[in-house]
From TrEMBL, chain A:
Top-level lineage group: Bacteria
Protein name: MoaD/ThiS family protein
Source species: Dyadobacter pollutisoli
A Pfam family annotated for this UniProt entry: ThiS
SUPFAM superfamilies the UniProt entry points to: MoaD/ThiS (SSF54285)
TrEMBL record, chain B:
Protein name: Molybdopterin synthase catalytic subunit
Metabolic or biological pathway: Cofactor biosynthesis; molybdopterin biosynthesis
Phylogenetic lineage: Bacteria, Pseudomonadati, Bacteroidota, Cytophagia, Cytophagales
Sequence similarity: Belongs to the MoaE family.
GO MF annotation terms: molybdopterin synthase activity
EC number: 2.8.1.12
Binding partners and assembly: Heterotetramer of 2 MoaD subunits and 2 MoaE subunits. Also stable as homodimer. The enzyme changes between these two forms during catalysis.
Organism, as annotated: Dyadobacter pollutisoli
Length: 79, 149
């Protein structure tokens, strides 16, 4: 399946990208996706981030459906 | 039946001007059920960093998710407090030191609800809205990523 992945803040600096298409096997969980991300971008191991699937912050056990929009969110700084 | 509040646009490009704040106050003078307004203004601090002093913050956001989060905060605040009116504005892009990047404006018949709601809304924004801030330091284009605590 292919996923639309978006990077924000300091994470976009690490990837050098604002977004990319991520090709993955079916039956991917958020935790599995996190492992793939850390493998491709080892510098992210140093960073805190949350993963939003279709605009909801998701736990590692949550499944990811095909055509999901995934965002990697560094610590918030609003206000 | 609960009143449904339409989602409102929160983000503005650049700083929020004192003139905009004063016009917002003026536009509520016809609403005579209001007895108390509480206003919170977030202003950019000239923090000292290792390489210099902060000259401004550049804000970015996951805008669609952020607008939805703002909407949920508004709905929760209306459910929790006796409010007549509520407005939230947040900057995107560069806001120089000393200027305003957050304007929370709540109105109620009574002071207690206005005080409590404004604090609640500001804390919820800091914790739950995907907004990111780059603190710009000195003249050389250096920066430090900001993190809410």
């Amino acid at each position: 399946m292919s996923l639309h992945v978006m990077y924000y803040g300091m994470l976009a600096e690490i990837t050098g990208l604002a977004e990319e298409v991520w090709v993955a096997d079916a039956q991917l969980t958020v935790g599995g996706f996190r492992n793939q991300i850390l493998e491709k971008y080892p510098a992210m191991r140093e960073k805190k981030f949350k993963i939003a699937v279709n605009q909801k912050i998701s736990e590692d056990f949550a499944p990811i459906d095909t055509q999901s929009e995934i965002a990697l969110l560094p610590p918030f700084a609003g206000g | 039946m609960e009143k449904i509040h339409k989602p409102k646009k929160v983000f503005v490009q650049g700083p929020i001007s004192p003139d905009f704040v004063s016009k917002s106050i003026a536009s509520h003078q016809s609403k005579t059920n209001i007895g108390a307004h509480a206003i919170f203004l977030g202003q950019i601090r000239a923090d000292k960093k290792e390489t210099g002093v902060v000259s401004g913050i550049e804000y970015t956001a996951y805008e669609e998710m952020a607008e939805q989060a703002f909407h949920e905060i508004r709905e929760a605040a209306f459910a929790k407090f006796e409010l007549s009116c509520m407005h939230i504005y947040h900057s995107l892009g560069i806001v120089p030191t000393g200027e305003i990047s957050l304007f929370v404006f709540v109105s109620s018949p009574h002071r207690r609800a206005a005080f409590e709601a404004s604090e609640y809304i500001v804390e919820e924004i800091k914790a739950n809205v995907p907004i990111f801030g780059k603190e710009l330091v000195g003249e050389g284009g250096e920066f430090v990523w900001k993190e809410n605590t």
